[in-house]
Write a structure and sequence with these properties.
alpha+beta; Pectate Lyase C-like; two-stranded parallel sheet; two-stranded antiparallel ribbon; globular
Length: 164
């Protein structure tokens, strides 16, 4: 067999393996999403990159779940348990997280414009490079959260907890 044919077959094989891996990853994500929607439980599951905009997920039990770069615009997550969840780079604009347990959650680089956080537990929650413009929350809610380069609801930037 000529060398260029062998190279072409190798490239084609790698391409097929790449597609198969992507499809398996998407199927796994779909399994987590469908399980979560059906059971309202997905503790520790991987929902990174998931599109859950406008989803009604009230009382979701997803402590420790990975929502990295997930799209949760307008999602209804009221009264949910999301302690220790990772929302790094996620878009939660307009989401409702009222009365949810977000203690220890990570919102580094997250978009949270117009998010509802009234009554939410934000103890130990991390907001680094996060955008909370026009968010609705209790005045004292951010006292026990970590803030660094965080745009607050009033458009001020908090560097309170940035390492010098």
């Amino acid at each position: 067999m000529k060398p260029w044919k062998r190279s072409l077959i190798s490239v084609a094989s790698l391409y097929v393996l790449g597609i198969s891996s992507s499809l398996l990853a998407m199927a796994d994500e779909d399994n987590h999403v469908s399980r979560m929607i059906k059971s309202k439980s997905c503790e520790g599951c991987d929902l990174s990159g998931a599109t859950l905009s406008n989803s009604r997920l009230r009382k979701l039990m997803a402590a420790g779940a990975n929502f990295t770069k997930a799209y949760l615009v307008g999602a209804d997550l009221q009264n949910s348990t999301l302690s220790g969840a990772n929302f790094k780079g996620a878009n939660l604009n307009g989401a409702n997280l009222s009365n949810s347990d977000l203690s220890g959650a990570n919102f580094t680089g997250a978009e949270l414009e117009l998010v509802q956080l009234k009554g939410a537990n934000l103890n130990g929650t991390v907001f680094v490079d996060a955008f909370l413009m026009h968010a609705s929350l209790d005045a004292e809610a951010l006292e026990t959260a970590a803030l660094c380069n965080t745009v607050l609801p009033d458009a001020t930037i908090s560097k309170r907890d940035c390492a010098d």
